[in-house]
Fold this sequence. Notes:
- Belongs to the ATP phosphoribosyltransferase family. Long subfamily.
- By secondary structure, the protein is of the alpha/beta class.
- It has helices spanning 13-22, 50-59, 69-75, 117-127, 142-145, 160-164, 192-209, 222-228, 257-267; strands at residues 2-7, 35-38, 43-48, 64-68, 79-84, 90-96, 111-114, 132-135, 151-156, 168-177, 179-184, 210-218, 236-239, 245-253, 270-276.
- The strands form 3 sheets. Strands 2-3-1-4-11-5 form a 6-stranded mixed sheet, sandwiched between helices.
Amino acid sequence: MLRIxxxxxxxxxxxxMAMLHExxxxxxxxxxxxxxxxxxxxxxxxxxxxxxxxxxxxxxxLDIGITGRDLLQDSxxxxxxxxxxxxxxxxxxxxxxxxxxxxxxxxxxxxxxxxYEGIVAAHLADAGVEASVVHLDGAVETAIELGVAxxxxxxxxxxxxxxxxxxxxxGEPIMKSEAVVIRRKGADTEDPKVQxxxxxxxxxLVARSYVMMDYDCxxxxxxxxxxxxxxxxxPTISPLHHEGWVAVRSMVAAKEAQRIMxxxxxxxxxxxLTTAIxxxxx
Length: 282
């Protein structure tokens, strides 16, 4: 069986299990379940702390894992990402009190507090900065107020909590993170079971990003309509009972669907419909 690590809690857990369910895999019904066997798909799922997943995968005990890019890089584990999943996106940045520093070039001799010691230490080393890094588990913004550090490095979304603590974001982002599928470095990524798993997840990603659009169009307007809805290879065109009309079916990006429907209507297309795509293989 393919052995896969899944986050057991936090912002990664729910979306990861939802994606796996959409991909046709069984998922646990209770949080206390640590292992679930899906015999139909020949997969065994292990529900682990997100921070530990890269370590287990790099050891070779598990074949694949779903975790965050930030947690993978922070672990220093011999594992690599093989598919981006598009959820749990975040930006990792430095912050400090106004006037303290403008970026890493000013950090020499300072202490930086973070929950991601591995990422920060590597970033400072790449920048040639000699600074101390202190590890804290959460609520790192209080480290400056309590005198533990002069700078913090943390996940930043809106920056509201930092501003409320009297801090400002400085410098360029250290990294951008999201949920990823990881595999041990050097492992056989052409393994048929791994490839099938990746195809299923890729199918979910495409299904979430596209809709199927159907509409009726006059033949003389067809080329302009097809330019609006080219599809992945090309649209399906079928003649209608009324002469001079055709039915068109094509996949379009979900975020563009409303605009495309407006443009088709202005072109003279009618009976314009969109339907969700639940699964696909490209």
